[in-house]
Write a structure and sequence with these properties.
The chain has 2 domains: 2-27 and 290-398, Aspartate Aminotransferase, domain 1; 29-284, Type I PLP-dependent aspartate aminotransferase-like (Major domain) (Aspartate Aminotransferase, domain 2, 3-Layer(aba) Sandwich). Helices cover 43% and strands 15% of the residues. The protein has 16 helices and 12 strands. The protein has helices at 2-5, 20-23, 28-43, 45-68, 81-89, 108-121, 137-147, 171-180, 199-202, 260-266, 274-277, 279-288, 291-313, 338-347, 374-388, 393-398, and strands at 16-17, 75-78, 99-103, 124-128, 152-158, 183-188, 206-210, 222-226, 328-333, 351-352, 355-358, 361-367. The chain has a 7-stranded mixed beta sheet, sandwiched between helices. α3 (28-43) packs antiparallel against α4 (45-68), α5 (81-89) packs parallel to α6 and α13 (291-313) runs parallel beside α15 (374-388). The protein is globular. Keywords: Pyridoxal phosphate.
């Protein structure tokens, strides 16, 4: 798998890169498309940004919408998922006493976003503790529904969690939120290209995801989805040429002939749209290389590696396989100095992988992408075995 596919990527050969989940890695042909767009922009900036941009932005929007099971008028191109989720969080009309229901597995930047919103509005965050290990859908949904009250205004969930690499089975919780009149806001930073998405069928009010991770587009390409019925609730973070005073009126058009949702959110002043314009190239690369087949191989290798480490540590997996992200797995480690393990893995073994403490659990979060190999997994297991002294008699006895 990797010998053939690794040549398509720009990653350093002296580093075992097992951290695709943080920022992704862009294939060479897609990166070349990205650079071609940048060059075209620089050759005639006024024509590119002043005359052609509206039509240029439409092409990736339509291509991505088809990939995600959404209407082309229901997504906008942004630089990252955090921006999209901030647009939603800072737009919703929250008041003192309102509650934002979320979980104890959320991404720290978004925890800060909701804390900021609460400070401004007087709303409060309610955290549902998800029982671990996650082994069935009801276990998750029951914990969420138990946290819903008459004061719950927002349900904020990750689709794939960042620290624990779990797939949350969000469908029933989203449906119940809709039934109760609760806005559902989904953090899909890790989902596009990782799971098959049908956003219209899911029915979440708002969903933001990154393209630069598992879709393998250049950095700075993401999207925000909003159901047509709730698009009028959103305000842009930046007021620029796309805004009109009549944007909240029924049937209003944006400044450039699209919906106010598209024109107000996508137009943020001068910015380089080349990463977003490269989305169709990334989709084509995935089709050309049968990425569904590649992903299946990656999933098998990720699960195999997690099982190998669990056998050495004697520690339980964090979930049943069906609730583990397909190409990303959070592997529990014995109690250790996670910062030191992380540093030594890179400095001594040239392995790039996040190692951190989540609540009381030490974790190494493994990503497996098409450029990785079983030999690299062997190198990781050997390094962790040495650093954590996993074969020592004392460690074996402790198991």
């Amino acid at each position: 798998m990797s010998d053939n596919l690794a040549r398509h990527f720009l990653l350093r050969e002296d580093v075992v890169f097992l951290n695709h989940g943080s920022f992704g890695a862009c294939p060479r042909p897609v990166f070349e498309t990205y650079q071609a767009w940048q060059l075209e922009l620089e050759r005639e900036p006024v024509d590119f940004l002043g005359r052609r941009l509206n039509e240029l932005m439409r092409v990736p929007r339509e291509a991505l919408a088809a990939e995600l099971g959404a209407g082309a008028g229901d997504i906008v191109g942004l630089t990252n998922a955090t921006t999209g989720l901030n647009i939603v969080a800072q737009s919703l009309d929250l008041k003192p006493g309102d509650q934002i229901l979320t979980t104890d597995h959320e991404y720290s930047a978004l925890e800060k976003t909701w804390a900021y919103v609460c400070r401004k509005t007087g709303a409060e965050v309610v955290v549902a503790k998800i029982p671990m290990p996650l082994v069935n859908e009801a276990q998750f949904t029951d914990a969420i529904l138990a946290g819903m009250t008459g004061r719950t205004r927002v349900l904020f969930l990750s689709h794939i969690t960042s620290p624990t690499a779990l797939i949350f089975p969000i469908e029933r919780a989203v449906a119940e939120a809709r039934r109760r009149g609760i806005w559902s806001v989904i953090d899909g930073a890790h989902t596009p290209g990782h799971l098959r998405l049908d956003l219209d069928a899911l029915g979440a009010d708002f969903y933001s995801g990154n393209c630069h991770k598992w879709l393998m587009t250049p950095k700075g390409s993401a999207f925000l989805y909003a159901r047509p019925e709730v698009q009028h609730l959103l305000n842009p973070l930046v007021i620029s040429h796309g805004w009109t005073a009549k944007s909240k009126e029924p049937g209003a058009s944006g400044a450039f002939g699209n919906s106010p949702f598209i024109d107000e959110v996508e137009m943020q002043g001068t910015r380089d749209p080349s990463a977003w314009l490269s989305v169709p190239s990334a989709l084509a690369f995935r089709r050309e290389h049968d990425w569904d087949g590649v992903a299946a191989q990656c999933r098998a290798l990720a699960q195999e590696t997690a099982m190998r480490l669990a056998e050495l540590t004697g520690l339980d997996l964090l979930s049943a396989p069906e609730f583990c992200a397909p190409q990303m797995v959070a592997m529990a480690l014995p109690d250790c100095d996670t910062a030191e393990i992380h540093r030594t893995l890179f400095d001594t073994y040239r392995i790039e992988i996040p190692v951190f403490r989540w609540q009381k659990t030490c974790i190494a979060r493994l990503s497996v992408q098409g450029y990785n190999s079983r030999a690299q997994m062997d190198r990781l297991i050997e390094a962790l075995t040495e650093l954590l002294d996993l074969r020592s008699p004392a460690r074996q006895a402790a198991r």
